[in-house]
Write a structure and sequence with these properties.
four-stranded mixed sheet; alpha/beta; nine-stranded mixed sheet; homodimer
C-alpha cells in the first residue's frame, strides 16, 4: 500500500576530510523517499525554492517519487552545510542552516492523497508535521521522526505528535533527551508510555533497539568500514522500515524484525556515498544480497 | 578440558548512588573463575595478602576453584576502590589502587598445572602474564585480556603477548587505543594483524564484535534495566567465553557464536549484583533460561 511523507527537501553542502561536496540533493524526505521507494509508491510533501536545481527535481521524479505536493514558492530552498570530522563520523557539525521556503510553510496535499493509508512524518518542525497530519483522513499507520532541536524548543508539540503516532523513531541521544532516562531500555519504555505502540531507537554504529509491549529486540549495525557521508542515514533507515511495512499485509513481530533488518541494510548503503549517490542506484538484488550477509553477521 | 588463569584477586570497595559496599571479593581472576567454573574446572593463579578474609578464600574454594597456586605472602591484598556515577554506569572511576602483594609478584604453579591445555591471561601486568605463560608447557589455546593502563605504559609487552595468544579480548576503547583506528571493524582487523587469530571486542551496553579471518559477527548486549555494579563484567564475559570453549571439543564458528552468547548472558547477570553476589549463585538452568530469551532478542 502506498505511503506519504512530509519532510524537508534540501540542498546540502558537506565537508569531510576529502573536502567539500556542494549542491547535493538532501533533506529528510528525499532520503526517506529513496529508501521507501524500493518497496512501495511514495508521495513526498515538501516545499522547494525557485533555486531548486531541475536535475534534482527530475531525479526524484525519475525515481518514481510522486511530487504532486512538492510546492515551489518564491524563496530559497532549505539549505544545510554540515561537516563530519574523521574522528567522529557518526555526528554532524552544523555549519549553516538556511530555512528559506520552510519559514511559514503550510503543507498542502491533493484530495486523493488524503486517503493514503501509511503516513510518515519525517524530520521537519512539529508544527508542519501536525498541520500535515491533520490533512490525512483516516491513516492506518502513522510513523514519526524528529530531532534534538525540536525536542529542545518545542517539546510539547513533539509529545502531542507522539500521542498520534503508531511508530516513533529516534536516535539514542533523542530518546534520552525526551525521557531523561540514561538507560536505553528504560528510555524506550518511557517513550512507549507517552503514546506510540512501537518504539525504535537507532544507535548509529551500534545498531537498533526495538520496543513494544509484547516483545523487544536489538540488532547490531551492518559493519561499514568506509563511511563516506552519514547524512540521511536515519531517514534512509526510516524509509526502509516504513516502506517494508507498507508493502506487507500485516504488522507483526516477524515483519517488524524483517523491516528493521532492511532498514539497517539500506542505511549501511546510504553512508557509503555522498548524498543519495549510493542509495539511488540500488537494486533489490543488491539489497537482498547484503541482507543475507547481515543476517549471518547478527544471528547467534 | 580444564582451564588455568592468572589474574588479580582483590578486595573491592565500590561506591554507587546507593552508597559504599566494602570488602567485596573482586579481581579479574575471581570474576573470571566464577563464570568459567560453570563450564569446566578452573585453576586460579594469583597472590593474596595476610589480610585476605578467610570467608573469601573459603568461598572460592567451595565454588570448586583450584587455589593451589594462589600464594599468600606477607603484604596486603591488592585493593581497589571505585565509583560508578548513575549517569554513566558503564565506566568506573578509580578512587584508589593499592597493589600490595602484586608488587614484584612472580607466578608459580604446580608441575601438574603446567600441562593444562586451556590458558587465560586475565587482566594483570603483562610482565606477570608473560612470566606465567612461560611456565605453561604446550598450551592448546591461549586467551588474553588487558587494560588501558598497560597499553599506555607497557604497550610493547602487551603486543608481545598478543603474538603468543590465540584469542584477544578487549573493550572498544582499548581496541582503538592499541590500533589507533576509530572504526571498530578496522580496529578488529588491525588487532588480528598483530597476531591473535580470534579477536573479541566488547562494546559494553552495545554488545560484542567477533572477528577472525573466515567470518565475523556482532551481537547486542542483553538488556539489563537494573545495573547494580558493573565491576568484573568484562572478566565474567571472558570466563564464559573461555569456559564454554574449554568444554567444547572443537572451536569453530558455531561454538564461537555460542560462546559469545553465553559470555554475554553471564556478564548480564554479573552487573545485577555487587561483586560476585549474582554470578556466584547461578545455576546452569537460570543461565540457559536467560540464554533463550537473549537469543530471541537478537535473532533477526
Amino acid at each position: 500500500m502506498s505511503l506519504i511523507s512530509v519532510g524537508t527537501v534540501a540542498i546540502d553542502n558537506i565537508k569531510t576530510a576529502q573536502g567539500w561536496k556542494r549542491n547535493l540533493l538532501g533533506g529528510s524526505a528525499s532520503h526517506f523517499s529513496m529508501s521507501a521507494g524500493l518497496f512501495t509508491e511514495v508521495h513526498l510533501v515538501s516545499a522547494i525554492g525557485k533555486d531548486f536545481p531541475k536535475k534534482h527535481y527530475d531525479f526524484l521524479k525519475n525515481k518514481g517519487v510522486d511530487l504532486s505536493s512538492v510546492i515551489e514558492s518564491g524563496g530559497k530552498t532549505f539549505a544545510w552545510d554540515g561537516e563530519y570530522k574523521p574522528e567522529n563520523l557518526n555526528s554532524a557539525i552544523t555549519l549553516k542552516t538556511e530555512l528559506g521556503v520552510l519559514v511559514g510553510y503550510k503543507p498542502q496535499i491533493t484530495e486523493k492523497q488524503r486517503n493514503i493509508p501509511n503516513v510518515f512524518l519525517a524530520n521537519i518542525g512539529p508544527d508542519v508535521q501536525m498541520a500535515f497530519l491533520k490533512l490525512m483522513k483516516n491513516p492506518k499507520f502513522v510513523g514519526m521522526d524528529t530531532m534534538n532541536l525540536w525536542i529542545n524548543i518545542m517539546k510539547p508539540d513533539v509529545i502531542k505528535l507522539m500521542k498520534k503516532s503508531d511508530l516513533f523513531i529516534s536516535n539514542d541521544a533523542e530518546a534520552k533527551l525526551i525521557t531523561g532516562e540514561t538507560n536505553l531500555i528504560k528510555a524506550a519504555k518511557a517513550l512507549r508510555k507517552i503514546g506510540p505502540k512501537l518504539v525504535v531507537v537507532k544507535k548509529g554504529e551500534h545498531g537498533v533497539l526495538f520496543y513494544c509491549d509484547d516483545f523487544m529486540f536489538s540488532f547490531g549495525a551492518f559493519p561499514v568500514d568506509k563511511v563516506v557521508d552519514p547524512t540521511g542515514a536515519g531517514d534512509t533507515f526510516a524509509g526502509g522500515l516504513m516502506g517494508y511495512l507498507a508493502k506487507m499485509k500485516k504488522i507483526n513481530e516477524r515483519t517488524l524484525r524483517q523491516a528493521c533488518v532492511y532498514a539497517t541494510v539500506l542505511s549501511s548503503f546510504n553512508v557509503e556515498g555522498y548524498g543519495l549517490a549510493k542509495t539511488a542506484g540500488l537494486s533489490m538484488v543488491e539489497v537482498d544480497q547484503r541482507m543475507k550477509s547481515y543476517v549471518k553477521f547478527i544471528t547467534p
